[in-house]
Amino acid sequence: MKGGQICEINKKPPVFRSTSCSVKDTKDRGGGGGMGSERGREMRERDESSQYSCFLSPLKTLSASFKVLLRNPKVFASIFALTSLPLSLLLFSKSFSSHPIKTQIYHLEAVAALSPTRFEARHVWKESRAYAISLVRLNALFFFPCYALSLLAAIAAVHSTGLSCNGKRPTLEAALTAVRTTWKRASVTTICVYAVMVVYMLLQRALVAAAAGLPGMDLGPVAVALVGLGMEVYLMAVLSLGTVVSVMEERWGWDAIGSGWGLMEGRRFSGWVLSGILVLGSGCIGWEMEEMMDGGDWWSVGGWRVMGFGNKVLLMCLFGVVVLWSYVLNTVFYCECRRRQPVFSGEPESEIEV
User: Are 88 and 313 in contact (CB under 8 A)?
Assistant: First the structure.
């Protein structure tokens, strides 16, 4: 209004009046544009920093998990000796015991496929079925003690790591107390986890078989298998986080798994990478064990056989360490996700420190 009044008093031409008024508007708009450019620059910097943090976040989580182990060596050494190492011993014993049976089953299946008559093939299949039944019985014999030890190891390691992330000192007594108070929730959640994994494995095999039956799709089964492997790694990350939720919170079953899915918001790539690292580590140990079992009888007393026995003992201990570390890593990742989650919902950050 003031600029308009000055224009009317001086009785300037309309062109000059519109020009003088537009200069002021241009200055105002220029200031707004400067503020907009600054906001745009901040948003671009924030996006770039989020991209960098997306790749650095798994490394930070790995470093934090090692720090937790180094800060509490006595507690985790006790958990390793009481749960993870016996669990590894049982799993390796099951593998050593079932390996000859599996080898015999594969041999009989190959013989049945090459049998000239149906009668001979039927006889070979009957013998193979008997070995398969004995293999199922052997797995059932090892299942319950392995499940009990894995449940104890998970609860003790998760609870101790959670205390360490909250700035408290974990003890073996506190871990045992957590086992007594949370084993029901963890049991229900792990049963749901096993059910999901079984259904997914069956679905993945069905999809690979369907892709193999398509004409002109030579690489179809390979592509489906690779995509399925990536999805399986991500599913394992979600299910592992759900197991941690059932120990750390008053949730169990599908509620805990759904909470784990929600906690991964904004950290899904990091969870996938961390789960892939754990799968790669345990897979390398499994492959090395398979090569050693295919190499011959490890109970021999020859010099190079004794060295093979030492390598197997080393692999057992290493696998136990990987099992314990996986629980610690998943718990550290849970604490980081729980600390970030209130920020997304507009609430103040929690007191969890890693």
Answer: no
Range with the lowest mean pLDDT among 20-29, 120-129, 185-194? 20-29
Contact in structure between 174 and 242 (CB atoms under 8 Å): no
Of the candidates 48, 220, 246, the one whose C-alpha atom is nearest the C-alpha of residue 154 is 246
Any residues with CB less than 8 A from the CB of 225 and at least 6 apart, and which?
A: 204, 208
- DSSP label of 182: H
Handedness of CA 186, 192, 194, 200 (dihedral sign): negative
Alpha helices in the chain (DSSP H): 2-10, 14-71, 73-79, 85-113, 118-165, 172-212, 220-248, 254-263, 268-294, 303-344
Interval 279-294 mean pLDDT: 82
Q: For residue 257, count other CB atoms closer than 10 A to its CB.
A: 22
CA distances from 52 to 56, 111, 234, 244 (A): 6, 56, 21, 27
Give the whole-angstrom CA distance, residue 31 versus residue 280.
55
Query: What pTM, to 2 d.p., does this model score?
Result: 0.75
CB 175 within 8 A of CB 160: yes
Q: Are 238 and 313 in contact (CB under 8 A)?
A: no
Alpha helices in 249-348 (DSSP H): 254-263, 268-294, 303-344
| 71 pLDDT above the threshold of 50 | yes
Nearest Cα residue to 337 out of 248, 229, 252: 248
Least Cα distance to 111 among 102, 122, 101 occurs for 122
Report yes or no: 350 and 281 within 8 Å, Cβ to Cβ.
no
Rounded CA separation 246/255 (Å): 9
pLDDT score for 316: 87
Phi and psi at 243, nearest 5°, equal -65, -40
CA–CA dist 293, 300 (Å, integer): 13
* Residue burial 224-241, b: 16+ Cβ < 10 Å; e: rest: bbeebeeebbbbbbbbbb
